[in-house]
Every structure is written in C-alpha cells, then in structure tokens.
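WARN retry 2 of 3 for item q-0093 after timeout on previous attempt; input resubmitted unchanged.
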Amino acid sequence: MKEIIIACSGPSLDPDQVCDSGLEIVAVSTAIRSLYNGSSRIPEYWAFADKLNERHGEEGSEAFLDDRVVKVMPSIRGGGARNIAKDGYDISTSNHELFLYLSNAGMKNWSSSCFAVAWAISKGYEHLIFAGCDLAQPGKWEGVLVTLREYHDKYPDVRLTSWTPESRINDFMEVDLL
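OK item q-0093 returned
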C-alpha cells in the first residue's frame, strides 16, 4: 500500500515521530519549518498553495532551493508558481511539480492542506496519515474540515488516518495515536 504522511503545522506536530516513521512525507506549507533542516530532516515533498513568504522561515527559503525536496505548487488561481515567480524565485532551477488543483480534485477549498491531499490522491497514495492537523480554532478551519470530510466520503478506497490527538478530523477518520 502506497502511504504518505500529510504533515501540517499544528502544535501537535512531532517532527521526530514523522521523520523517524520511514514513510514518505509531504510538508504542508509552514510545516517545512519543523521538518527541514538540510541534513537529517528533509521531507520528500513540500506542498503549498500560497506564496513563499516569511511564515515559511529560513527553512522554507533553503528547502525551496534544495532539489532533494520536490515542491508541489498549484498551476492555477494566482497562487503557487505564479506568485513564486513574482517574488523573484526561479522555479525553472528548482525541483518542482505543478498540479492543476481544482480541475483534478473537484474540490473547492483553497488551502495548502486540502491541496496536499488532492495531490496525494492524484499520485495514487492509498493511505494518507495526518500529523499536526489540529484544526483547533473554531471558525477558522471550518472549510478545511468540510473539505477533508468530502475527501473521506468521495474516496472510500483511500484510507485516512489521524496521528493528531484531539483533532476534529478524528470524528470521521481512523485514529492511530502512536
């Protein structure tokens, strides 16, 4: 079974647990700060639907230039690749993959976490493990929560597992708190 960890930047994210798992990892947006140090911690993928900015930290700037990390960016809707180019980064010199998000996924929520899930499903991953997906602030994360539930219902053959204690995703995902 093809498995990947969807590593979000919630306070419960345990970089050691994620990096020591032996599974492929997609760092979601600002989670790159915790999951990349250029030597022992290097996620295979980094998905972000926004533009590279100070919230990604120095780790984000370094990871963007590191060809060992595949940058997964949307190819439409003013985000991702278009904004990266505007900010002076040359995506032609970086190991990257553009993903046509809304058309491929049929989903409407524009967040890096939903983008990463749509990408992973499109790449044939059969088991998605969510780490650091706290979604703790009521109101702020409602759209993401609804979209993740839609993925759960739309793709019954894709196993969704939460490694996130006390997350609202645990209401509809399998929970495996290591």
